[in-house]
Amino acid sequence: MISLDPSARACKHKPMSNPTLTINTDTIVANWQALGALSGGAVQTGAVVKADAYGLGVGPVAKRLANAGASRFFVALASEGAELRAVLGPAAEINIFSGHMQGDTDLISRHKLTPILNSPEQLLRHQEMGKLHPFGIQIDTGMGRLGMQPLDWLALNHEQLRPSLVMSHLACSDEPDHPMNAQQLSVFKELTDGLGYQRSLSATGGILLGPDYHFDLTRPGIGLYGGLPFEGGRPVVELSLPVVQIRDLQPGDTVGYGNTWTARNKAKIATIAAGYADGLLRSLSNSGQLFAAGTACPIVGRVSMDLITVDVSHLKHAPDTLEILCEQQNIDQLATLGGTIGYEILTSLGPRYKRRYKTA
Ligand SMILES: *Cc1c(COP(=O)(O)O)cnc(C)c1O
Predict the structure, then answer these.
(1) Of 68, 134, 191, 280, most Cβ neighbours within 10 A?
(2) Average pLDDT over residues 115-124
């Protein structure tokens, strides 16, 4: 049984209450520490907070992690780095995965961001800022997405280059037995052994591959937020959705766009105030489920933009709210029902939810 949080109980008296996304920032810290413990004291554990901390709110999330001792943060874009600097103040190191793109110089300079450079062009552009402004370099060891090509990397003058970090990214780290992991590891070592640079190879999945993959710094994202492949992580979010109305259906009545669901017996259908515009994927139509104090209730009919219809015929009492992320259903279980991954569930959670931050 889950215990309804006080705001959910208050819905009884406030039927227009908002959908509420509850984010436990202490659990994020606990997950960060658990991932850190996997790689031991000599390895620094960074924190990836791109895409608004995977949809959970970069301000409260990054601040809480910094209070717990995180000092090295990663975002995708310089604009995200500028926002993060305002949250964290001058001490934290903020790395930008997309590097130094045209038009970024002003943000990088003003907010003291550290771009992770991905090409000789980016390196030239960055060096125009002067030799003192820090940077890292990403090498593409086989992912084929972002990073400097090995030949370009080898052609650099390593006597004079002073990157604060050299990193690469694994393509298949969520599949421990995939031969690509060992192959990328060996390419990364071949390209960087003996050069004396600080190195990083692993996101959440790579941390789980063991110490060979840890180098000096790890870069977990999804594992902080309770997602796979980190099975040891604890769920961070709960999502509670108010019931707008409950309708009584007769056998043969249909529900929703396209009449995709027909009542075989008398039924009670609860209509919920959230839909695919809020990240509750349309692929959950006739396949997802919500929970009423721990009891599963199937989604019937199509998920629409702002509304979901749920069969609550079997409940003893009409619910005021239903939970879609809760003790009985985490982001990866919901993702499986919707044909996607936990990352996409989290980053799709829309701006219409009231985000409530709680500590343990
Ligand atoms: C997003 C990202 C990460 C974090 O990945 P997770 O799988 O969420 O841990 C780390 N490194 C790079 C380069 C990334 O793009």
Answers:
(1) 280
(2) 97
Residue nearest to atom 10 of ligand 1 (CA): 203
Number of Cβ atoms within 10 Å of the Cβ of 1: 8
Q: Which residue out of 48, 117, 145, 213 has the highest number of ligand 1 atoms within 8 Å of its CB and is therefore the one to mutate?
A: 48
Q: What is the pLDDT of residues 153-179, one digit of tens each?
A: 999 999 999 999 999 999 999 999 999
Given a contact cutoff of 8 angstroms between Cβ atoms, the answer to whether 25 and 357 are in contact is yes
Distance between CA atoms of residues 215 and 277, nearest Å: 41
Match 């390209």 to its residue by tokens. 191
d(CA 349, ligand 1 centre) in Å: 19
The tokens for 280 are: 């509750």
Q: Which pLDDT score is estimated for 269? A: 98
Reduced to 3 states (helix: H, G, I; strand: E, B; else coil), residue 281 is coil
Task: Using DSSP, state whether 274 is helix, strand or coil.
Answer: coil
Examine the residue annotation and report whether 50 is marked as an active-site residue of this protein: yes
Structure tokens at 83: 């926002």
**Among 201, 64, 207, CA closest to 142:** 201
DSSP run (H or E) holding 33: helix 25-39
Question: What's the confidence (pLDDT) of residue 130?
Answer: 84
* Helix and strand totals (H; E) in the chain: 12, 19
Please state, as a whole number, how many other Cβ atoms lie within 10 Å of the Cβ of residue 252. Answer: 8
Instruction: Quote the DSSP letter at residue 19.
Output: P
Asked whether the whole model's pTM tops 0.90, one would answer yes
14 is known as an active-site residue: no
- The type of residue at 276 is Y
CA distances from 323 to 21, 22, 38, 267 (A): 10, 11, 32, 20
Q: What is the average per-residue pLDDT within 343-359?
A: 94
Mean predicted lDDT score pLDDT of the chain = 94
Tens digits of residue pLDDT in 80-92: 999 999 999 999 9
User: In Å, how far from its chain's centre is CA 118?
Assistant: 23
Q: Is the beta carbon of 72 within 6 A of some atom in ligand 1?
A: no
Count of C-beta atoms within a 10 Å radius of residue 201: 29
Which helix (H) or strand (E) segment is 354 a member of?
strand 354-358
pLDDT of amino acid 41 = 85
What atom in ligand 1 is closest to the CA of residue 138?
Answer: 13
In short, whether 125's Cβ falls inside 6 Å of ligand 1 is no
